[in-house]
Amino acid sequence: MPSYTCPMHPEIRRDAPGLCPECGMRLLPEKAESEPHGGHGGMKMPDGVAPPGKHEGHSLAIFARKFWVSLFLTLPVVLQSGLWQKISGRPFPSFPGSAFFPFALGSIIFFYGGWVFLQGALREVRARLPGMMTLIAIAISAAYAYSVYATFSGKSGDLYWELTTLITVMLLGHWLEMRAVQSTQGALKELSKLLPDTVEVVRNGKPEIVELSELREGDLFIVRPGGKVAADGVVAEGKTELDESMVTGESRPVRKGVGSEVIAGTVNGDGSLTVRVTKIGEKTFLAGVMRLVAEAQASKSRLQILSDRAAQVLTVIAVGGGFLTLTAWLFVAEPGYAVERMVAVLVIACPHALGLAVPLVASISTMLAAKNGFLVKQRLALEAAKDVDVVLFDKTGTLTKGAYGVDRVWNFSGADTAEVLRLAAAVDGPSEHVIAKAIAAKARQDGISVQSVSDFSRVPGKGVKGIVAGEEISAGGRALLEQREGAVPGRYGTEIDAENKKGKTVVYVLKGGQPFGAIALADVIREESRQAVADLKNMGLKVAMITGDSEDVAAWVAGELGIDEVFAKVLPEKKAEKVKLLQQKGQKVAMVGDGINDAPALTQADLGIAIGAGTNVAIESAGIILVRNDPRDIPKIITLSRRTYAKMIQNILWASGYNIVALPLAAGALAFKGIVLQPAWSAVFMSLSTVIVAVNAMALRKAKLGRE
């Protein structure tokens, strides 16, 4: 597998093409493979992120130093070129060898300041991917070569002041570009910093501080108040609240107690925890997030492919236009002026802005997605989200919690319903049935004190019975009620029949053999689902639901949520056919499911979204993965996709329009009107264009994707 490196930062390598995390330039293939390097706790740093202490190439500091040195040496060259005489009215002071003074300083600036561009051009040519560095290298080499020729042949018209100012401005521009771009490319580094360097483990019953790399699965470690969780694990002791916003997008602190799962990199609140390690290194959730983000940043959207092709075409046009400009001006002007025009064309046509227009926005949107609780595995998936017409939800575990919950309680005497729950929870206490557990959980949730049961027994196929507070209590389905020949009084029968038709399960509670009350249970609808469906419909999208449940249950859930279209009694292997049915109507479909039995449908859909992935961030069937079981994140995906696309279009229009206007000016199309663009100003406008693209992309970082 080829390795890819940055022309400006050769120490940065990755296994796939993409952008340099330091300067944002396109990575180029090379023959040498990168050496593996470890990270915290055995976790490798993502490809493309230089390990600490190995940043031996060019950096912001080096570009800054080269700029200041070049600027210092450029000033006397510019003054000697005639500027001093214009300012003071006197010629520049002469001294022995002063005729060669511009040559000496120009040579120093060319080889010292311009070497990074020459080196970058060599890498681009070797990779057969000529671009910005190639154009700059040709421009400064042509200016320097002609100036040297003019110096030693005795001809006038050297371009030393143009050469030195060009290199100085290019260094300044690249330095500013790097600063702007670096802030958009450092997200993976920030993720790697979430882990602590050391961890307090319990060894032989005593706490001790060890390096994170020494942590092993099964170890116990302590998380102090305000500290960071060192590895994925399960709480063995203590309770607290964790800030999981950096890895899950959950804005509110999450309560944790014994048995709760914790994620590496999350921040502890005021409590103290003892955690047993379940996953370390590459197996952790954080490592999975970093892998997915790195994969997404390496992948390309359709707009990025178009942008890359446009940048390559622009490079060819620039080289051809530059030499055409040189040839044309040689017939009507001095050679020095002709070379100057060619240099201006080559510089101003550098496709850096066009090359960065899409990748920068895509990189920012990938990290913005991660901060909002969803992971973009494929950029094409995020791009497809803006075109979605209908969002198809799997019901169980997505719109609903996938577990029974108490929905309604009746007391046939018209008294407090809490008494019905108290008796039912008491007699169901010893039972392991999911319905019994749901009733007991509801009683605990409502703070109802439940008495113990004696003489507990099961009534086969009908329910359970026992003695509670000296009275016989029974709980079960309609069969139990019919066995006791009980009848539901008055209006309650009508209400219960209506709930039955919605697919709910009704448990009857009998006291002393007589009907006392009833409890309706159902797969509980998530409160978040109501807002998610409402938000999607407000965005102009249709919402559909697919489920294996009966039509009554499906109709009830759809009615509660306001869903437009329902597919009920659908087997898992038939779900993909329903997606095709919607697609045959000309609709773009986003399928939302749990990523397991919904895999065929997720793959068939135009956009597959796996919800509730938890620590399983490697679901292959989905292009986007939700970290939380929260359907409200679906509208956020659509919003981010639309805003990302808008930013990409804005940048492409700016970068393309800039070149269309600037190229003729640089070539001298308006020279007859006295409008001439000097090479140094070409460099200023080229760099400014790139900075504008970067700043416009960075504005996406402040985007609000939806309600919390």
Key phrases:
six-stranded antiparallel sheet, Rossmann fold, alpha+beta, elongated, 708 residues
Describe the overall structure.
This protein has 708 residues and is of the alpha+beta class. The protein has four domains: 60-186 and 300-365 and 646-702, no CATH class; 198-289, Calcium-transporting ATPase, cytoplasmic transduction domain A (Distorted Sandwich), CATH 2.70.150.10; 366-400 and 526-641, Rossmann fold (3-Layer(aba) Sandwich), CATH 3.40.50; 402-525, Calcium-transporting ATPase, cytoplasmic domain N (3-Layer(aba) Sandwich). The chain has 23 helices and 25 strands. A seven-stranded mixed β-sheet has the order 13-25-24-23-14-21-22, sandwiched between helices. A six-stranded antiparallel β-sheet has the order 5-4-6-12-7-10, with no helix packed on it. Helix 10 (335-348) runs antiparallel to helix 22. The longest helix has 35 residues, at 633-667. It is elongated. Residues 21-25, 31-57 and 613-618 have low confidence and may be disordered.
